[in-house]
Amino acid sequence: MSSLKSFKRSWLVWIWLVTVFFLSGLIVNSIQILLLPLWYISHNVFRRVNAVLCYSHWAMLTFVGEWWGQLDIKFYGKKEDYELIGKEHALALPNHRSDIDWMVGWILCERTGILGGTKCYMKGFLKFLPVIGWMWWFAEYVFLKRNWDSDVPVLKKSLEQLNDFPIPFFLGIFPEGTRFTEAKHLNSLEFTRSRGLPELQHHLFPRTKGVAITLKYLKDVVPAVYDIESAYPQDSNPTMKHLLGGGECEVHLFVRRIPIENIPCGSDEEVSQWCRQLFVEKDKVMSDFAKNGEFSAERVELPRKKRNLIIVICWNILLAMPIFYILYSLLRSSLMVSVPTVAACLLIGYFSVRVLLRFSDTKKGSKFGLKQNGTKESPKEEKNGIHEVKKMD
Fold first, then answer.
1. First-to-last CA distance in the chain?
2. Residue 27, exposed/middle/buried by CB under 10 A (0-12, 13-18, 19+)?
3. Which of 25, 138, 270, 307 could be bridged to 131 by S-S, CB 3.0 to 4.6 A?
4. What is the value of pTM for the model shown?
5. Does the residue 295 lie in any domain?
6. What is one cellular component GO term in this UniProt entry (predicted)?
């Protein structure tokens, strides 16, 4: 093992990275709180400033994939589609297969200059995550409880607020509702077979309610929907832990722009039918990858930028002096104070790393879509062409 790889896999180095991540995030959070009065003066001025603040912190996460780890992303599609990302409002409909799908999506946004304007539908509890969750809240991410009655007002309010968003946004929705696993796939197949619906071999059957209400409110705001498909070779290890250790990971990303005028948005039922057909097409694209080891579309060059690298270097320099000064002061104090304090800091850092890695681990992921207590969670019968969730005996 090379000395560089040993360095990247050191727990002390990981603790340092997490410490810088949290402290820089707290600085950004503090600035966001101080700027809150600006929201009541001008929403759009606050949004422009906040996008820069968010990017200054989120760039640390894309840095892990692009510069620290060896994440090799191969882009496919039409060059003209990629050129429009970051220049227009857009809705993105990706598949969901790995721990790092979010990072791959963020790197796409990083390289197209729209990372500060990203949005996503997320589980409600995530807004309480220290630093990153608070930042998502400031960035107007949409937090849902997976209860349709309580989520509808939240979605309506959030989507209406995007009507006058001053910079291009990139709103991501995972129609599958959860990460793909074999157990969840079997449950999805059981449902589609029982209803005579198309069977998907590489995706979970889409839940279309979120897509339908989103297009209902944004059809006059977003010029296009981006179909995004990520695929990983069998020997890839797409995990945060692997990337933090400087490991190699290959991912293939197919992007297709669908103009909004080509999408039937007249009713929820039309959107539902379109979304299901989209996933049939996505399944064919993934089958092509499974057969050939690559997508059949044209390769697109989308080189990495140095912005996130520069930002990470700046944060480390900015925080290194106060951190080392505090450590130096502690070490100069009595052993009764310094030893327990330093040990406590190391333990907090260690467990913070463990929590972050566990949070991103597919094996520790959501049970949404799995059988529980003798029941299985499957989409309900369609009502107006929209899927719901129910428990089936």
1. 52
2. middle
3. 25
4. 0.87
5. yes
6. endomembrane system
Q: Cα torsion for 122, 128, 131, 137, to the nearest 10°?
A: 50
Question: Would you say residue 197 lies in a domain?
Answer: yes
CA distance 351 to 235: 29
Q: How many domains does the chain have?
A: 1
- Residue 383 is given by DSSP the state B
Would residue 10 count as lying in a domain? Answer: no
CATH of the domain at 297: 3.40.1130
Total residue count of the chain as it appears in this document: 393
Among 8, 49, 12, smallest CA distance to 28 is for 49
- Name the DSSP class of 237: -
User: pLDDT truncated to tens, each residue of the chain (393 aa)?
Assistant: 578 888 888 888 888 888 899 899 999 999 999 999 999 999 999 999 999 999 999 999 999 999 999 999 999 999 999 999 999 999 999 999 998 999 999 999 999 999 999 999 998 988 988 889 999 999 999 999 888 889 999 999 999 999 999 999 999 999 998 889 899 999 999 999 999 999 999 999 999 999 999 999 999 999 999 999 999 998 888 988 889 889 999 999 999 999 999 999 989 999 999 999 999 999 999 999 999 999 999 999 999 999 999 999 999 999 999 988 887 777 777 666 666 766 666 666 656 666 666 655 555 555 555 554 444 444 444 433 333 333 332
Domain boundaries, position 114:
71-306
Residue 8 lies in a domain: no
Give residue for tokens 């039922």.
269
Spatial distance between the Cα atoms of 13 and 15, rounded to a whole number of angstroms: 5
